[in-house]
Every structure is written in structure tokens, then in C-alpha cells.
């Protein structure tokens, strides 16, 4: 712990064990406390708020420039104390327990989906080594697998057949667990007012809506929709100098999971939206005439992120004419 007075002079330098930290801060007068947004930071911030303090969470990459000379624990704490007092510092909103619960469901689902993808890739590799190829897409392999196992003259040994059957059972179990989490997220989206309003936006379903609410709550951390789109990494990366502006591809910063969901949602909604006879449809058709389809998908995801911020921040339902 490193403490500054009103003039920025160090008045406190102390090493505190983890289990004694809250007892130490309980005996201190209410003050501004800066911490890096890392694992456990939201729980600690809520505990400090209950004690009357003003905790502020900061992205670690914004704190690092304040670390002087060689890195050690005291200089890390001093860097946090200096960074939290900067008027231009960007802070991470403290998540509620409900937000963390919702975020945890998404993270567990993401891990299960990754396990299923790895299992399917391994299964395809095993079959390919025996000269058996199956067309792309998960559903195609799932449909063809029973016929492959029933065929006696495809070169699969009895042991490999048993292994493939075991992998197939594991695949079905992963499907069941993912579907159960999907059903839970859909049920939560139906009971949450913010999620219901988000689901009215084309390209945003229960999965995207619950992930957005878990990550940004009401979007108050951003002053405008472009700021949230930039936080999601959906805006161009800039490398300008000497008065010459140079815009590159999207920055891909921030929440990768949310950006992926928004892009998948935009890809699914693009054909329908491009046929609409309104401002949004006209904009998409003109965009598709001059850029690649994938570029148009990312541009639509950017627009969906801005619309989502407006719906969350303004407590207003989605209106197609206003979006156009």
C-alpha cells in the first residue's frame, strides 16, 4: 500500500497480507483507492465501497506508464496511486454480483464450445488418416458419423471404432451441457428488461444481449456509442503523424468475446437487413457495392454496437427509423 496526501507526497508505505487488507482499510478514513482491474478486483472494490471508500479500477496497460525505473511491489502501488488521480484516466466500472454470475456462465460456455471444436477437429483428423473425408460443418459430420461406423469396409479397426464411439458420446455430452447453458441464458434474457430491449435489435439475440449486459451494464462507462465500439475493437486503428491521417484495419482491442458475438450476429442479419427498404438497408446496399462482404459485416457490427449502447444508455426501445 502506498498513500499520497493532497499535494501528491507519499505519506504511507506499508506491506499488508491479503487476509488483513480489509481490516487495515476499515480503520482508515474514507479515501480514493486505485487498483488494477484484475482477478478479484471487483469483489475487493465492492468490499471497499461497503467501508465508505471510493475504489477505482484501472486497465493495467494504462497504469504501466507510471511505473518508475525498476519494477517492484511498492513502485507498482505508487503507480496506481499516481494514475488514479489523473483527470484523463479511464476507469473500469465495478461489476455487480449478478453481472459476474452472468459473465461466468458465458465463460464456462465458451470453454465448452472450445472443447467441442477441438474434439471435432481431432475426430476429423483420425478419419482423414484412414482415408475418410467428410464435408465441412459440424452438422454434416454429426449426420455422417453413424454411417461411417456402420460401414465394415472403410478400413477402421475395431479399436478405432470404439475410440470414435467414445468421442461421439463425449461430443453429445458437450452438446447437452452447451444447450443447457443456452437455455439458461435465454431464460435470463426474458426476465431482464435491458436484455429484452437489446433482443429487439436485428442481429442481437439472447447470447449477445446477456453478454453485453454482463460486460457494460447500462453503458454509462462510455460517453457515446463510438466509444463502446472502439472499446470492442470495431473501429479503425489509427497511425497518423505529421498531419497525415492514416487509418488501418480494425484495432481488435478490448473484449474479444463480445466482438466475435457481434460480428457473427451481423453476418447472420446482413442478408435480411440489406433487402429492407429503409435507411439502414440503403446504407448496406451502397456499402456492399464498394467493399468486400466481410468488411460490410464488420461495419454492420460497429453500427449494432452503437445502437446497443443507445438502447442501454437511454432506456429506450429499438426503433428502426431512428437507427437508420
Task: Itemize the secondary structure elements and their pairings.
Blueprint: E1 2-4, E2 10-13, H1 21-26, E3 32-36, H2 41-50, E4 54-58, H3 60-63, H4 73-84, H5 97-129, H6 138-150, H7 158-191, H8 193-199, H9 206-216, H10 225-231, E5 236-238, E6 247-250, H11 256-274, H12 279-290, H13 293-314, H14 320-323
Parallel strand pairs: 3-4
Antiparallel strand pairs: 1-2, 5-6
Keywords:
324 residues, mainly alpha, 3 domains, two-stranded antiparallel sheet, two-stranded parallel sheet, 7% strand, globular
In short:
The protein has 324 residues and is mainly alpha-helical. It contains 14 helices and six strands. Helix 2 links the parallel strand 3 and strand 4 (54-58).
Question: In words, what does this structure look like?
Answer:
The structure is a single chain. This protein has 324 residues and is mostly helical. It has 3 domains: 2-84, no CATH class; 97-191; 194-323, no CATH class. Helix content is 60%, strand content 7%. It has 14 helices and 6 strands. The chain has helices spanning 21-26, 41-50, 60-63, 73-84, 97-129, 138-150, 158-191, 193-199, 206-216, 225-231, 256-274, 279-290, 293-314, 320-323; strands spanning 2-4, 10-13, 32-36, 54-58, 236-238, 247-250. The chain has a two-stranded antiparallel sheet. A two-stranded parallel sheet has the order 3-4. The protein has a two-stranded antiparallel sheet with strand order 5-6. Helix 2 links the parallel strand 3 (32-36) and strand 4 (54-58). The longest helix has 34 residues, at 158-191. It is globular, with a radius of gyration of 25 Å.
Amino acid at each position: 500500500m502506498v498513500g499520497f496526501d493532497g499535494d501528491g507526497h507519499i505519506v504511507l508505505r506499508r506491506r499488508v497480507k491479503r487476509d488483513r487488507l480489509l481490516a487495515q482499510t476499515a480503520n482508515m478514513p474514507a479515501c480514493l483507492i486505485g487498483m488494477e482491474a484484475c482477478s478479484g478486483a471487483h469483489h475487493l472494490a465492492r468490499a471497499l465501497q461497503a467501508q465508505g471508500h471510493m475504489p477505482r479500477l484501472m486497465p493495467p496497460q494504462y497504469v504501466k506508464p507510471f511505473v518508475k525505473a525498476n519494477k517492484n511491489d511498492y513502485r507498482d502501488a505508487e503507480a496506481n496511486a499516481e494514475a488514479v488521480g489523473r483527470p484523463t484516466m479511464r476507469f473500469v466500472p465495478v461489476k455487480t454480483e449478478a453481472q459476474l454470475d452472468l459473465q461466468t456462465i458465458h465463460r464456462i460456455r465458451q470453454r465448452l464450445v472450445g472443447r467441442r471444436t477441438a474434439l471435432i477437429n481431432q475426430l476429423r483428423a483420425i478419419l482423414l488418416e484412414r482415408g475418410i473425408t467428410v464435408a465441412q460443418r459440424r452438422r454434416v459430420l454429426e449426420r455422417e458419423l453413424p454411417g461411417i461406423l456402420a460401414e465394415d469396409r472403410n478400413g477402421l479397426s475395431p479399436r478405432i471404432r470404439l475410440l470414435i464411439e467414445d468421442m461421439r458420446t463425449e461430443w453429445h455430452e458437450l452438446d447437452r451441457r452447451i444447450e443447457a447453458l443456452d437455455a439458461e441464458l435465454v431464460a435470463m434474457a426474458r426476465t431482464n428488461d435491458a436484455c429484452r430491449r437489446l433482443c429487439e435489435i436485428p442481429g442481437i439475440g439472447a447470447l449477445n444481449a446477456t453478454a453485453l449486459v454482463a460486460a457494460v451494464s447500462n453503458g454509462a462507462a462510455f460517453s457515446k456509442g463510438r466509444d463502446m465500439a472502439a472499446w470492442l475493437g470495431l473501429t479503425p486503428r489509427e497511425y497518423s503523424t505529421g498531419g497525415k491521417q492514416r487509418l488501418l484495419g480494425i484495432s481488435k482491442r478490448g473484449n474479444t468475446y463480445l466482438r466475435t458475438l457481434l460480428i457473427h450476429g451481423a453476418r447472420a442479419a446482413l442478408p435480411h437487413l440489406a433487402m429492407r427498404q429503409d435507411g439502414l438497408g440503403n446504407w448496406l446496399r451502397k456499402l456492399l457495392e464498394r467493399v468486400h462482404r466481410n468488411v460490410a459485416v464488420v461495419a454492420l457490427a460497429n453500427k449494432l454496437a452503437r445502437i446497443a449502447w443507445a438502447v442501454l444508455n437511454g432506456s429506450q426501445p429499438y426503433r428502426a427509423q431512428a437507427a437508420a
